[in-house]
User: Which sequence fits this backbone?
């Protein structure tokens, strides 16, 4: 794990090959109980991420909260596209839910990770999936005022009139939070407000 956190590729090779270090080992002293690949994805180190995958790390391993390395990379807006691309290119599942029913697309939309959002859409992430808050990724992006994410999701086929269980649509959320540019885009895409009489 230390080799991963400090981007020590040579040390990583030594620990895995001659010593047989377990790539699925978890950091028990850390509350998330994540793997070395989670740490590499969060640490934004594409070379170490790629090397761990080459050495056999499970790209779909989950931490204590059911989050995969792809969840970690997607929620970090400074994540390099290469880390996300490596994970996706080696079979990381786009539809894995964490304990809050958030998928990587929700996290990329919520945290404004535009490059991850683009890649997830290219790899077929479902824009119509809801999380425990009943939000689509489009609701998440509208709530945060992330206009580029809203546009990507809107152009990616997200339902601009999708309602939460309480009746809120992305347009309602944008207007309620004063995100006029997002509201105008959503209206241009055919969105209507729940407050129309």
Assistant:
């Amino acid at each position: 794990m230390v080799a991963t956190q400090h981007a020590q590729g040579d040390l990583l090779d030594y620990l895995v090959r001659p010593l047989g270090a377990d790539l699925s080992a978890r950091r028990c002293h850390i509350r998330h109980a994540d793997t070395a690949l989670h740490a590499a994805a969060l640490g934004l180190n594409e070379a170490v991420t790629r090397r761990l995958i080459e050495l056999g790390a499970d790209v779909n391993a989950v931490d204590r909260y059911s989050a995969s390395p792809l969840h970690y990379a997607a929620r970090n807006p400074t994540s390099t596209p290469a880390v996300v691309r490596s994970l996706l290119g080696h079979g990381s599942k786009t539809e894995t839910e964490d304990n809050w029913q958030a998928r990587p697309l929700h996290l990329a939309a919520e945290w404004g990770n535009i490059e991850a959002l683009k890649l997830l859409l290219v790899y077929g992430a479902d824009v119509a999936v809801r999380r425990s808050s009943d939000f689509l990724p489009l609701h998440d992006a509208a709530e945060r005022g992330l206009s580029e994410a809203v546009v990507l999701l809107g152009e990616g086929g997200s339902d601009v009139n999708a309602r939460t269980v309480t009746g809120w649509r992305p347009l309602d959320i944008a207007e309620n939070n004063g995100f006029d540019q997002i509201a105008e885009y959503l209206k241009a895409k055919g969105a209507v407000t729940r407050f129309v009489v």
About this structure: The two ends are 58 Å apart (CA to CA). Confidence is low (pLDDT under 50) at residues 1-7. The first helix runs from residue 2 to 5.
